[in-house]
Design a protein that fits this description.
The structure holds 2 protein chains of 2 kinds. Chain A has 18 helices and 19 strands. By secondary structure, chain A is of the alpha+beta class. Chain A folds into 3 domains: about 170 residues, 2-Layer Sandwich (Beta Polymerase, domain 2); about 100 residues, Enolase-like, domain 1 (2-Layer Sandwich), CATH 3.30.390; about 280 residues, Orthogonal Bundle (Cytochrome-c3 Hydrogenase, chain B). In chain A, helix 8 runs antiparallel to helix 9, helix 8 packs antiparallel against helix 15 and helix 9 runs antiparallel to helix 10. In chain B, the strands form 2 sheets. A 4-stranded antiparallel β-sheet of chain B has the order 2-3-5-6. Chain B is elongated and about 95 Å long. The chains are: A alpha+beta, B alpha+beta.
Amino acid sequence: MVPHEISPKIGQHYVDALRARFGSAILNEDWRTSDQVAVTVELNSLPDVVENLYYQQGGWLSSVIGNDERSLNGNFALYYILSMEDTVKSWVMVKALVPPHQPEFPSVTAKIPAAVWYERDVRDLFGLNPIGIPDNRRLTLPDDWPADVHPLRKDAMDYRYRPEPTTDEETFEFINVEGEGIVEVPLGPLHVTSDEPGHFRLYVDGETIMDADYRLFFVHRGMEKLAENRMDYNQIPFLADRICGICGYAHSVAYSTSVEAALGLEVPERAKYIRTILLETERLHSHLLNLGLACHFVGFDTGFMQFFRVREKTMKMAEILTGARKTYGMNLVGGIRRDILKEERQQCLKFIAELRVEVNTLLDILVHTPNLVERTANVGALEPTVARDFSPVGPTVRGSGFTRDTRADHAYCAYGLVPWSVISKTGNDVLSRTLIRAEEWYESAAIVERCLDNMPDGPIMIEGFDYKPHQFALGYVEAPRGEDIHFTMTGDNQKVFRWRPRASSFNNWPGVRYMLRGNLISNAPLIVASIDPCYSCTERVTIIDIRKKKAQVVAYKELERYCRERKHSPLK
Amino acid sequence: MLNLLKEVIKVGEATTKYPLESLDLAPGFRGKPVYNPELCLACAACTTVCPPNALAMDTDTEHGVRTWSLFYGRCIFCGRCEEVCPTGAITLSPDFELAAFNKNDLVVRADFKLLECRVCNRYFAPGKELTYVLALLEQAGLPGPEVAQRRSLLEVCPECKRKCNVESIKRVGVGNPVEVKR
């Protein structure tokens, strides 16, 4: 590998500590940018190295990437991405090579629960078997997918291919909680807050949830495969936009910055400010949406309507700044496509001033609604110890006393250039997560104003760079729901070799099980909504009564009604 | 509760009369791309950048026709086509009302005649592209006879050009001293 001349090397001491502890198991260190280092380790020491970084050196698991590098070095590769948040903030990618003749690796999940979804995902898509993983069920692939087709292997299949279903049966095994008095409640086949698919199973004793299990990925769109096969590197920002209908712009910034980091490109300062403005515009509308939904779920629909009315102004702001109601289609690798003119700037400043007054009024009404506090305080507790184990992101982790915010920890775009503060609360409950969104809204408004005021003149795009193949780096953005992280490895012919976007909800979902435990089933939709999940509407809930050993299916509408009215339990 | 009532009364009606009334759009709104075939050269720059493949170019070398097409059903209104078009043949309009009863109503097509190669007589490039290049050269100040000479050069397909080059290189004999005939 070409030695990179990179200085300063932020986070060198993390690598030095690994070398001191593991010696010859650390095979190589490769600095991708001044704060991103890839450390290659021996496959068998992978769990210990990741655990050391995670628990001893203050790391959080941000992503795990599988990569078919057989055409590059003859092996599959795994990258465990750790966001180091001790006194020095940096990124460490622990890389291990998996030989193709023995496609398995020692599971990290036994030591770090946060890795569970990632390892199941790698197993499904690459056919690399995590040895010793506590939960070995399928995650990404459907039940009827053939066992030997691993879509992201380069030689597996054409991206348009959909194999014949192998079975008509639903073969997914939900966990089986048995015990006196536990009832199983299926929530979904498909979501509880927005209208997206996910299947929930709640195990209840009377009205109390004892445990929960859920199956998602019913709408996996195969974007990674599509991107590396059909698109060139400058088309992917438009695909990344469409990962999410709420925080799509965050994904396209994360993708663009990952390629810029991989190629060592420095984006013009004005482009950084414009990206920041658009990212925060997106947060303004997303937080208002979630606050509206919080009203809806506690049965306060007038509040819901009012929040949505005010939110319309943030959509108009997006229209003025980007030419579309969603902040879509603005990024290319190297900068931004559209400048902000003086008139647009003034209009936005005026809008924000008006919005601030209106949001003030609505929040005042909201927090003085007795129902809100009564329904959300001490509900859906995410204990800090659970949070530490599962690496949740965004308002979900900040509601449990942690001050994790990618904008502050790994300042990208213009977040290091304007003053603002991270909001965090210690209530661990739905109320904390809701109030964090409310307070963050004001921070976002202030960031937009400061950026509009301090934006430097100059170009907004760099052109004429060389697209070098097989360079990789991370791009990261704090989306409204938490950190989005993209890993990109550039490829030949203007294409990407590997693109792994990870949306914030991916890190928040595994912890929801613990948030549901011990709560009333009428609060289940409220708890799921509090992480503002990105899948999200569960049509039905299976409720399993462990005392009567009886399963019952409750339509989502019915559960939602019960959540809002809390009368006439569907279980009786 | 009282505050909420006050707010509701103060706001009054929040919705507009659309579609009975037209919507107030921001300047620079990105809507339906409008195509002007007169200006189009069929150079395919737009079809290469289009992220969702809404734009396509189909070349029929047998009949010497290249078909440009745009399917609005796939368009994401990103405006990359407008950005790369050398002649301004495609521009985004503020029109966003695209609903149609028939899917085919969402397709725009244009056919372009291809040029025959002077040497092998096979079709290879749109004629308009060549005319455009020659006009550019003329405008850059190239004298008329030279433009005509260029035309005869440009009317040869890339494959034949390559062959001709190989032939002439053979004649010169690269790496050998030029043989002088006596």
